């Protein structure tokens, strides 16, 4: 019994090799449909994982002021009182904004040198130590051909010159690729906002967030402030990625709907010849179940081949071309060809789903016609 199934499997392999044109056409249809899907899911999962890592390694609480329902700058006059709250281990003021370096938009991060996370390192140069010193991301460095010691000014503060003293690695986070890191005071002068911070990061002892929130209310009860914990920030990230994935899915569904007829037609390519083959099989003693098993083995092999090639091409798409033309769905304001290392995660489940989806499509395109031919008289099928 086992030998019978093995022989059918080997015969299915021979049929695919004999009908090379059909095999190639169906594989190309599968690859065209699955490659963008697998690549997009890998990019989305990679960015999501990198974002969640940054959230988990960040502060326990984030406090800002509220203005028209949005985050607003918080005065630094409350910083000392916040630091004295029981359970607070560290309170870090930051300035985060965006500005133009000539014609290119950059992320500006202002923070005191002693508060810089230890995970931030430079591939060349050093972290800033003095006023007007900055560390720039790899993408900015490549775009403007910046070197250690070069000086530049930014739109909005043309009289203030900054000196490049360090370069971030291209393998750092995607946000670091176009980031300019400077001292807190320099960032305040750049944006013309002295004595305020974009937010204050609060690191706390485990289990003390509720008590800290109560003390913050006593300190800021007459002010419109917003307090967000790590779980809330994580939820914002997840919702943002769900929105991005939803937009991509909506666009991809349209393209996918156009691709389904192509793969169904390709699966039935050479239908008259296949009917004659089935007629010969029936005339020589094959039953309907054996014919359908042979067809199923053929579709299984061609789906496995197409899905495997699609996965390999998706990996090459990301590794060699950095997800060109598709990364923009998930990362705003980047060029068609990203100049930084794109974070990706190829998970088993999307790859398995891609294979099963390809198998279902090819089966739909061939199983009914094969069953109909196998139930007809051999004489009619061989005409």
UniProtKB/TrEMBL annotation:
It comes from Candidatus Jettenia caeni. It is found in: Cell membrane. Residues 37-191 form the MacB-like periplasmic core domain. The chain crosses the membrane at residues 23-43, 247-271, 300-325, 346-368. Residues 252-378 form the ABC3 transporter permease C-terminal domain. Its main location: membrane. GO terms for cellular component: plasma membrane protein complex. GO terms for biological process: lipoprotein localization to outer membrane. This is ABC transporter permease component. Belongs to the ABC-4 integral membrane protein family. LolC/E subfamily. Keywords: Cell membrane, Membrane, Transmembrane, Transmembrane helix. It is a multi-pass membrane protein. The keyword Metal-binding does not apply. PANTHER family: LIPOPROTEIN-RELEASING SYSTEM TRANSMEMBRANE PROTEIN LOLE.
């Amino acid at each position: 019994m086992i030998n019978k199934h093995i022989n059918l499997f080997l015969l299915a392999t021979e049929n695919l090799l004999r009908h090379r044109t059909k095999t190639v056409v169906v594989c190309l249809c599968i690859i065209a449909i699955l490659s963008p899907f697998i690549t997009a899911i890998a990019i989305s999962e990679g960015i999501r994982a990198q974002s969640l890592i940054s959230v988990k390694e960040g502060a326990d609480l984030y406090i800002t002021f509220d203005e028209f329902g949005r985050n607003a700058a918080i005065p630094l006059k409350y910083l000392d009182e916040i630091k004295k709250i029981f359970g607070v281990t560290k309170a870090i003021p930051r300035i985060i904004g965006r500005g133009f370096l000539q014609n290119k938009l950059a992320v500006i991060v202002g923070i005191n040198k002693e508060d810089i996370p230890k995970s931030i390192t430079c591939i060349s140069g050093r972290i800033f130590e003095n006023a007007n010193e900055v560390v720039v991301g790899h993408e900015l460095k490549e775009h403007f051909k910046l070197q250690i010691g070069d000086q530049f000014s930014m739109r909005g503060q043309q009289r203030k010159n900054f000196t490049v003293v360090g370069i971030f690695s291209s393998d750092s986070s995607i946000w670091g690729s176009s980031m300019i890191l400077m001292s807190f005071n320099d960032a305040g002068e750049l944006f013309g906002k002295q004595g305020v911070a974009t937010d204050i990061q609060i690191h706390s002892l485990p289990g003390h967030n509720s008590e800290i929130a109560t003390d913050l209310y006593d300190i800021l009860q007459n002010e419109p402030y917003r307090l967000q914990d790590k779980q809330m920030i994580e939820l914002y990230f997840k919702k943002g990625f769900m929105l991005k994935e939803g937009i991509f899915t909506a666009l991809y569904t349209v393209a996918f709907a156009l691709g389904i007829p192509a793969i169904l037609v390709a699966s039935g390519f050479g239908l008259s010849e296949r009917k004659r083959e089935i007629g010969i099989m029936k005339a020589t003693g094959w039953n309907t179940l054996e014919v359908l098993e042979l067809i199923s083995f053929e579709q299984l092999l061609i789906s496995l081949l197409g899905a495997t090639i699609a996965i390999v091409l998706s990996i090459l798409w990301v590794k060699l071309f950095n997800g060109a033309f598709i990364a923009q769905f998930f990362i705003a304001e980047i060029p068609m060809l990203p100049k930084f290392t794109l974070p990706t995660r190829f998970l088993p489940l999307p790859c398995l789903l891609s294979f099963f989806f390809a198998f279902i499509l090819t089966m739909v395109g061939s199983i009914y016609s094969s069953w109909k031919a196998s139930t007809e008289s051999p004489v009619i099928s061989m005409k």
